[in-house]
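Ligand-bound model needed. acetyl coenzyme *A.
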Amino acid sequence: MVKSKIAGIGMYVPQRVVTNNDLLKYMDTSDEWIQERTGIKERRYAHRTEETTTTMGVEAAKIAIERAGITPQDIDFIVFATLSPDYYFPGCGVLLQRAMKMKEIGALDVRNQCSGFLYALSVADQFIKTGMYKNILVVGSEKHSFGLDFSTRGRNITVIFGDGAGAVVLQPTEDPNRGILSSHLHSDGESAEILAMYNPGTHANHWTNEPVAEFDNAEIGQMFLSHAIIDKAQVFPNMDGQAVFKKAIIKFPEVIMESLSVNGYSTADIKVLIPHQANLRIAQFVQQKLKLRDDQVYNNIQKYGNTTAASIPIALCEAWEEGKIKEGDLVCLAAFGSGFTWASALMKW
Ligand code: ACO
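Prediction:
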């Protein structure tokens, strides 16, 4: 039976390192608070005008494509996951197709925030398994630094996020000891507003009892983004951190166990678990709950912060580059985030 394997992987993070202490210039926070609650020491910020979510994705993709031993012209489908796209529309997939001078292939954008990369990987996996495509580029990339509130008002969110990109090339394999064994996708929209960026959008305060945006008086139009929304700083993400934490520590272990039990494995069989790098405390909680050893869980949020759709491919790439993942190893990827959506993928590397 044909499965998909990761034939090449790449990552890109911007050069600019921003330490916790660097953030003190903009907001009332401290290195101690940030490290204690999140484990983050520093993150990267993209060049404000020369780098975009797409250009970072391109840099990661170039490496993944080269490592797969192919050229951009060999790619036959693109799946691009991000919550911080260059344009509201069209998506980053077509911008990457143009930038890499690829053929007139399909390009799909995925909007699943922290679990975006796993949703993208799962979509690509289905296309490989059905035989429709042979070389699919899956990208996760974020330029968070462009859309955060750098005043003290936004500190609970802003200190967590960083910029970067990761990419993989998926190819078919008939080797029984390699490839994606299964992927598992879930959602629960009941708490959609707990971790969300409402504006710009077409919601017109429909979903919440408390208005989340102020619109200018107008007979027609001007609802998507108003002067009032900007003046009142209603263009930034919102998060109830503790509610996210509580749900994450239930759903992470659940979806990891789902992937193991479906394939007849136990936690002891995992060579490396790559959790979405949401927060080091969440990853540690999951590790404890599943009784995993330190060498079975890979974290690099300390260096990059939370890069949302990019965090899993960045961590997977670094773990592989450091020699922690070898051919045939059982690797589990898992994510939880805004939506809420959560997902896992189990593979033999
Ligand atoms: N620096 C200093 N103080 C801060 C900061 C900051 N950056 N942010 C908030 N505070 C203050 C608050 O104002 C509050 O002060 P008060 O007690 O005087 O009112 C105090 O710290 C506690 O605030 P909380 O919001 O309750 O902080 P909490 O202890 O919950 O920690 C955190 C916040 C780290 C976000 C935590 O809730 C958490 O880990 N949540 C998980 C969510 C998460 O990781 N999200 C990441 C993105 S989503 C994802 O990827 C799944």
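The longest strand covers residues 3-12.
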